[in-house]
């Protein structure tokens, strides 16, 4: 499924006409406070705290009803909100913006993930239950602005919390519009407003204010290393979903055609914006040419060394005082045809991925590029491939993939990589229940160890003990 730009513009124009401009107070300064839209962190936290006090008096069944409202809107309005996000952020693919909202509405974990534990013995009973933290401060990325808010909101509310979001500035409008729709429906049907709050004009200052606010009990960050470090240094409990540079290993026993299909599916999804997506591939030398043939058969377009060099000169830039390699923002999340054009190549319409051979020292190997070009690197054997995969994953312990029929090789790589997500013989998205088993969340907390977040992630443990009584066995 593909969308042309005229369709996107027409749908978004209709949405924006219905939404209208952000409200303004009579003094010309921004107004806010209704249906989750705020212009400063303090006001947003105050409103979220008030909503939390109301939510904590409600039943678990009411939490489920609130979550069902979010699911319904995310599913039923996925097309217009997804296209709105595409138009605003200008990264990724419109069909995948739509699909992410729909699947998060369907698959995000809810109250069923909250478990009560009981211990019974000679000295009575102990019940351990999951309790909310209160108000959660969240940072969301431009790569998945409203989808991250949607998935987080379902899990956080399931745990009994409310949330204040400081979105990435480049995705602030769709974040605000999605939050407004969620809150408006929740207020109308359940009588609580501002369960999800968003800072409509987010800045670094508003993020710092959110981190420091005394009524923010927990911080959840989905983003790059800098914002993750800021959260960890806040003095509060932090759940940090950090960066990744997921490698793929292909050994001599792999089903090459299946590997090619899976690699293309994962690496091209939303133009490689997913943090779990395949970013570089290490192939055992004896089957390297077979793997490249399989990639071409599956529809990817191979670039030669000169074309790769031309693309690299435009898509990789030097940044920072140390002049380290980084992805050029002009190419992040852009279509494969845009990358091919930069390389001086014309590709067939609908091409999802371009690829080519590089050595291991190439910047496309070491940089989390977030664009649909994949470097393929020759390895002497599977041990060499695993060693390079570990090196260029950079110790993020995020995601890794292997294509192999050798159980020993799968086991060896899994132990060596020690990643939060590890996929065998499938695309990266299968690790989140999209074509594999499990559940879906866009906050994958590797640095702080919680893994793929659930409602339990956003709760604290409480124990209630009855001494020497109520054991009736």
From TrEMBL:
Q: Which InterPro entries match?
A: Acetald_propionald_DH-rel (IPR012408), Ald_DH/histidinol_DH (IPR016161), Ald_DH_C (IPR016163), Ald_DH_N (IPR016162), Aldehyde_DH_dom (IPR015590)
Q: Which UniProt keywords apply?
A: NAD, Oxidoreductase
SUPFAM superfamilies in alphabetical order? ALDH-like
Q: What domain of life is recorded for the organism?
A: Bacteria
Gene name as annotated = sucD_1
The opening ranks of the lineage are: Bacteria, Pseudomonadati, Planctomycetota, Planctomycetia, Pirellulales
Q: What is this protein called?
A: Succinate-semialdehyde dehydrogenase (Acetylating)
Record-annotated Aldehyde dehydrogenase domain positions? 40-427
Q: Which CDD domains match?
A: ALDH_EutE
Species of provenance:
Novipirellula caenicola
